[in-house]
Amino acid sequence: MPRLYGGVDGGGSGSRFSILDENGEVFAESIGECTNQWLIGIDKVLENVEDMWKKAFESKSMQPVQLEGLGLALSGVEATHIKEEIVEKMQAKYSHVTKKTVPVNDSCGAVFTAFKEGGIVIIAGTGSNCQLVSPQLVQYGCGGWGHLIGDEGGAYSIAHRLVKAVFDDMDCLQECAHNTEVGRNLVWQYFGVEDQMDMLQFYYTKFEKSHIAGLTASMAKVAREQQDPLILSCFEWAGAQYARMLSGVIKRFKRETGKDFRGPEEFVDVVCVGKVFDSWDLMEQGFRKQFSMQSVVSKVRLYRCAASGALGAARLCDFSLHLDHKSFTQMFCEIDGM
Fold first, then answer.
1. Mean per-residue pLDDT for 200-219?
2. What is the DSSP letter of 271?
3. pLDDT recorded at residue 326
4. 234 in helix, strand or coil?
5. What residue ranges in the chain does DSSP mark as E strands?
């Protein structure tokens, strides 16, 4: 039996477990339930991790064996005391799963899947986040504070921006710069309502952040088919938020380390994760415009990664594990401002 290493790419809606052999090849995989400790607690998270570990070996018709190491790249894992609690509980109750546990934020998994020695990730799913991860796993963040404080550019914020524009225009609180008819009809149709009062249930008694965020997919379809200016502006705004977060995380790195992240002639490479980037064609203009207005970085390359962050999570246990990073990544935007 080869030496095996595990990695989990975990979030609120679902998780993926990958097992790599000592050559960095995928040995087995499985998918599982939520692993966000803010939503279900650490104990339940670790139960779900164990379940995915079992399922991965079941997919190979094998009895589970102890892993050399397990990298847990999970949303909601930032604070040191949370990481320490996860390690302690894994050792106490789940030592049969792995000899060593390395818990990190989910952004680390994406970064080390896409890049060999750390880098920057922008995550845009229901929410949003931007993290710069050093080769030593030191993280510098910008955004990612949830829908009540931040998450600008995530699907929830894009949908909410349209709803807010419709409501404000109807109330004569803030006249919209664009005609709101197409946007209003789309909101009413998506939620199955006929007026503003009917909408309130989805923000109170029936509130589900993911359901509101789901409006964004319908918005993208209408934006492409009808070129509605209001809906297009929501996506352009989202693109601008990613440029602001990228600039912000690099400024934070310099503020806290006293060093430049890259030299003036070097490209900054960024891996972009999340379904919202499927609408890059609608957001690119906003990103480029905002990027041109900042002076922190002049050259950037944006990549999509076809592989799960679970692969990068497994590497956190042993950086000698080889991954063919170039085969996973594809550049979709390059800006050379020099």
1. 95
2. E
3. 85
4. helix
5. 4-10, 15-21, 26-32, 69-74, 101-105, 119-124, 128-133, 139-142, 268-273, 299-305, 329-336
Q: Which residues sit opposite 17 in a β-bridge?
A: 8, 30
Long-range CB contacts for residues 47-53, cutoff 8 Å, separation at least 24? 48/15, 49/8, 49/10, 49/15, 49/17, 49/94, 49/97, 50/94, 50/97, 52/8, 52/15, 52/16, 52/17, 53/6, 53/17, 53/97
**How many H helices and E strands in the chain?**
13, 11
Task: Render pLDDT for 273-288 as a digit per residue (tens, 0 to 9).
Answer: 989 999 999 999 999 9
Helix (H) or strand (E) holding 23: none
Could you tell me how many residues make up the chain? 338
Note the pLDDT tens digit of each residue in 290-326: 999 988 888 999 999 989 899 999 999 888 888 888 8
What token pair was written down for 108?
Answer: 């680390």
Angle at 165 between CA 163 and CA 171, to 5 degrees: 100
The predicted model scores a pTM of 0.87
